[in-house]
């Protein structure tokens, strides 16, 4: 088989020499450095003369280190060689006349001044990184914090998924009849999950998570008003279909939100779950607030009639102030909270997709 010479392109920096051998699908690549500072290359591949055995030798201008790093791709073989001394070479080879198969690699070519600028920039970047890392104090409790957050999200995921699965099964089996006893079958687990959700307000205050304190407070407080005040204190509300829709919308959102945060604790990203986390809230969150508003409106006449939680007033002002007035104000605040939380979630969504685009590019 005829032995041929491939096209070789070179470039340099103060510390390294780069060679790019135009040989696709290279096999049996053998690269060695001889005692006389000569690089010897031999490989089987597809070059300018088709599929053949290709080889070349280069005697470098100055000594290089014996460690040679190379990487073969479908199109070429990339070689990186370290210089013994960090200095700029006038040419690559000891012989003044450049070999015919050798040419500058203009994709990586820099003159000496540009290379010096690049070297200074890398050194400044390295020193800045060292300076920043020295100022950052490593958190000795990071593993413990991640373990706590993982377990919290796991418990919440199991609780809300239990509610979601049970309500779905009951809906398929009983149909509309399942609307009327949702509270009696699901309330205990929902009580547990919503009491646990108080930690979502505490965690940002302790610096365990980077999410905002006020959006978490608005959501947790709003849901607890609906659950404990509207549904929990009024037996007349517990058999209404609106309970089903409120519980079902809450559990659907959380069944995908908590496992997303749970996997984030172990630096794992599941694309399907990530997409659901940042898109499912768009229809479900406003629907959940609408369902909560319906529950509040339905409870107003019941609070007026029962005088539950009414505020006693002096005789000159009347007997009492109905709690329904407080709930009417709460309705306005509910939709204000919807705007704040939707704006917050939209910003999180935009930030997430911008960061993913940067990673792709």
TrEMBL record:
Keywords for this protein: Coiled coil, Endoplasmic reticulum, Fatty acid biosynthesis, Fatty acid metabolism, Lipid biosynthesis, Lipid metabolism, Lyase, Membrane, Transmembrane, Transmembrane helix
Transmembrane domains' residue ranges: 147-169, 246-266, 278-303, 323-346
Pathway: Lipid metabolism; fatty acid biosynthesis
Domain CS: 3-93
EC assignment: 4.2.1.134
GO BP terms in the entry: fatty acid elongation; sphingolipid biosynthetic process; very long-chain fatty acid biosynthetic process
Compartment annotation: Endoplasmic reticulum membrane
Topology in the lipid bilayer: Multi-pass membrane protein
Catalysed transformations (reactions): (3R)-hydroxyhexadecanoyl-CoA = (2E)-hexadecenoyl-CoA + H2O; a very-long-chain (3R)-3-hydroxyacyl-CoA = a very-long-chain (2E)-enoyl-CoA + H2O
Matches recorded under Pfam families: CS, PTPLA
GO-annotated cellular components: endoplasmic reticulum membrane
The protein's name: Very-long-chain (3R)-3-hydroxyacyl-CoA dehydratase
Family in the record: Belongs to the very long-chain fatty acids dehydratase HACD family.
Role description: Catalyzes the third of the four reactions of the long-chain fatty acids elongation cycle. This endoplasmic reticulum-bound enzymatic process, allows the addition of two carbons to the chain of long- and very long-chain fatty acids/VLCFAs per cycle. This enzyme catalyzes the dehydration of the 3-hydroxyacyl-CoA intermediate into trans-2,3-enoyl-CoA, within each cycle of fatty acid elongation. Thereby, it participates to the production of VLCFAs of different chain lengths that are involved in multiple biological processes as precursors of membrane lipids and lipid mediators. Catalyzes the third of the four reactions of the long-chain fatty acids elongation cycle. This endoplasmic reticulum-bound enzymatic process, allows the addition of two carbons to the chain of long- and very long-chain fatty acids/VLCFAs per cycle. This enzyme catalyzes the dehydration of the 3-hydroxyacyl-CoA intermediate into trans-2,3-enoyl-CoA, within each cycle of fatty acid elongation. Thereby, it participates in the production of VLCFAs of different chain lengths that are involved in multiple biological processes as precursors of membrane lipids and lipid mediators.
GO molecular function list: very-long-chain (3R)-3-hydroxyacyl-CoA dehydratase activity
Main location: endoplasmic reticulum
């Amino acid at each position: 088989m005829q032995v041929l010479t491939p096209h070789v392109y070179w470039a340099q920096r103060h510390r390294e020499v780069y060679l790019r051998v135009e040989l696709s699908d290279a096999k049996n690549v053998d690269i060695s450095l001889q005692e006389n500072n000569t690089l010897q290359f031999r490989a089987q591949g597809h070059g300018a003369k088709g599929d053949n055995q290709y080889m070349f030798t280069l005697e470098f201008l100055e000594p290089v280190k014996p460690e040679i790093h190379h990487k073969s791709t479908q199109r070429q073989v990339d070689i990186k060689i370290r210089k013994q001394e960090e200095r700029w070479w006038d040419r690559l080879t000891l012989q003044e006349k450049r070999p015919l198969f050798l040419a500058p690699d203009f994709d990586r070519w820099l003159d000496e001044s540009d290379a010096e600028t690049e070297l200074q920039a890398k050194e400044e970047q390295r020193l800045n990184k060292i300076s920043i890392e020295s100022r950052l104090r490593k958190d000795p409790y990071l593993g413990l914090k991640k373990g706590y957050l993982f377990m919290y999200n796991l418990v919440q995921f199991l609780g809300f998924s239990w509610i979601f699965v049970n309500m779905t099964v009951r809906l398929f089996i009983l149909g509309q009849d399942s609307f009327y006893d949702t509270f009696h079958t699901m309330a205990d687990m929902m009580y547990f999950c919503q009491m646990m959700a108080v930690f979502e307000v505490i965690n940002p205050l302790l610096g365990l998570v980077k999410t905002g304190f006020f959006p978490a407070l608005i959501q947790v407080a709003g849901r607890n008003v609906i659950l404990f005040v509207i549904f929990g204190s009024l037996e007349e509300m517990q058999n209404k279909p609106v309970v089903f829709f409120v519980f079902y919308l809450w559990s659907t959102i959380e069944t995908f939100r908590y496992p997303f945060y749970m996997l984030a604790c172990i630096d794992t990203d599941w694309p399907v779950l990530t997409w659901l986390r940042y898109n499912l809230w768009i229809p479900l969150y406003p629907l959940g607030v609408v369902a909560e508003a319906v529950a509040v409106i339905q409870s107003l006449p019941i609070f007026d009639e029962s005088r539950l939680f009414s505020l006693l007033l002096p005789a000159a002002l009347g007997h009492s102030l109905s709690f329904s007035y407080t709930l009417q104000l709460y309705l306005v605040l509910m939709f204000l909270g919807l705007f704040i939380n939707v704006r917050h979630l939209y910003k999180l969504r935009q930030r997430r997709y911008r960061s993913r685009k940067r990673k792709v590019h």
